[in-house]
Amino acid sequence: MKTKYLSIIFALCSVFFLSSCKDYLTEIEPGTDLLEDFYTSTEAAVQNVTACYVPLMWEYNNTYFSEWFFGDIMSDDALKGGGSTTDMGDSYDMENWRTTSGNGLLLDFYRAQYQGIARCNLALKYIDGMEVGIDDNFTANMKTRLLAEAYYLRAYYYFRLVRIYAGVPLVLKVLDSSDEWGQPRASVDAVFTQILSDLTVAEAGLWKKSEYPAEDLGRATKGAAQAMLMKVNLYMASPYWQTYGLTKSASECYADAKTWGEAVINSGEYFLCPVYEDNFTLVGDNGSESVFEIQYAEVPWGDYGEGFGFTAGSFTQQLVRSRSSLIGGGWGFDHPSQNLYDEFEAGDPRRDVAILVPDDDKIETPSVEYYLGNKLLNNKYGMYRDTYPGTGFGQWGLHASRGPLNNRQIRYADVLLMYAEACLGTGNTDIAKTYINKVRARVGLGEVEATDATLRHERRCELAMEGHRWFDIVRWNIAYETITAYEAGESTEYKAQIASGAGFQKGKHEILPIPYNEILLNPTKMEQNPNYN
Questions:
Q1: What letters, b where the CB count within 10 A reaches 16 and e where it falls short, cover 471-499?
Q2: pLDDT (tens digit, 9 = 90+) per residue, 42-56?
Q3: 36 with 129: CB under 8 angstroms?
Q4: Which among 438, 410, 408, 407 has a CA at the least distance from the CA of 423?
């Protein structure tokens, strides 16, 4: 599927260019192309659905906005990094609890998700209207699968939105008139309910991972939908999200999460990769442990100064690698924290896979390599070893602007730990213990009892620097306690810079403000989140 991403960015444009000005004419002029005229073949339907995946890839518009700026840097797992505290000021404000509605990173992330939602709505409307048998490949099974992919992706985009901004506008159709642009914010309950509805439809229609041809690996699968149904139910069961007055009780959510987790596990489609670090290599893309990944391709050009959709490669590797050319020549963002480093047990190999500690003699300019006294580097996405074993980086990392390493959104280890959490929530402690220790056994660690504390420790170590931590501590309703303890234990330099911030405020900073520019576009229906302006 990676190779299709380059051409599909441009293919989607042709879909929109086919739209006419029919709303302004009493009759359609001869030769006018209608949007529905595009949907005359399986290829057209596949192109539209493939285009629905593309905004997941985007990391830059007016600034960089990879999801790990939230998931890692806002948590106790990582510091912002970069050349100085003024480098990427939007992220610096988020790190220091000074985020305002004018934050550019928040705006670009928000808009990218709605670009994806709009593409999904387009696919759902027009592919649904295509007749089975329009060509030999457009079978009922194919039509159902393509629609299911669009439902899955729409749910995925809304999930990314709700856990950052809380309630957001629910747009479930193609908006083909400016009169419809002013959509009101939906409640958190309504957004979660719609996500579950879309994922339920998707799960019924998606194919198993093993049923896709090799060139289509990376598309949404039945297992991916089941894993997301488990994940969303765990969020809804959490003490934080329950405070939003969800109509589904925590006990119902835990029970459903357990059921969906069993569906993934019993499918026989996924296996833990025998060697943990192999998950974070090019040969590990879409491997046995992969449940859902954002697909990337190596390209020689960048998107800086261009915006959404101008590259099919990932810039994350460049963003997080060391600023010293002897180690990688990157930009040095997303520094793992000392707090995270110290979380790992003695002998846990996952620490060195997640965190690189550069030798001092390889640091060319300490003033830009160290960030607030911290020189630790993100090893999972910055320094993988496929192309030239032993060098610490691949050829693309030195010569290309954007790299091909996929972003692992859901791994099977994550599924097993979510399932263990669901089992704890339903009182099935013995089952939870089995699956926590299954993940630990893969890296040679001994057995532990199943408690909230051991589960949370295991998630942190297993998924370190993969963008999960912030969202976990929020849903567990321990963000304030976690961040307060973390800040108290960090370096003198770190304490000095956070002193200028407002400090984490419980009941405010668990979510972020709706971007001001979005409120300007819709001032009568888009109220701001509490305590933000």
A1: bbbbbbbbbbebbeebbeebbeebeebbe
A2: 999 999 999 999 999
A3: yes
A4: 438
Alpha-carbon distance of 227 to 292, in angstroms, equals 9
Q: Which residues contact 34 (CB under 8 A, 6 or more apart)?
A: 18, 19, 20, 22, 28
Contact 84, 372 (CB under 8 A): no
- Record the tokens describing residue 520, joined without a space: 């300007």
Using a 10 angstrom Cβ sphere, with 0-12 exposed, 13-18 middle and 19 or more buried, the burial of residue 178 is exposed
CA distance 150 to 217: 16
DSSP letter (8 states) at residue 364 = S
**Residue among 287, 291, 315 at smallest CA distance from 302:** 315
pLDDT grade for 392, boundaries at 50, 70 and 90 = very low
Report the distance separating Cα 377 and Cα 97, nearest Å: 23
Average pLDDT over residues 287-313: 90
Give the span between the Cα atoms of 377 and 370, in whole angstroms. 10
Using alpha carbons, select from 227, 251, 220 the residue that is nearest to residue 237. 251
Give the dihedral sign, CA 444/446/449/454: negative
Do the bridges between strand 355-356 and strand 377-378 make them parallel or antiparallel, or are there none, so unpaired? antiparallel
Domains located in the chain, CATH noted:
1-20+35-64+101-206+513-533 (1.25.40.890), 316-409 (no CATH)
Confidence at residue 397, expressed as pLDDT on a 0 to 100 scale:
41
Find all residues with CB under 8 Å of 174, minimum gap 6, and list them.
118, 121, 122, 125
Report d(CA 519, CA 420) in Å as an integer: 40
Longest dimension (CA), the chain: 75
Which of 94, 107, 109, 73 shows the shortest CA–CA distance to 332?
73
Residue 79 has a CB neighbour count (10 Å cut-off) of 27
Token pair belonging to 336: 């793992």
What is the number of alpha carbons within 13 Å of residue 443 lying toward its C-beta?
21
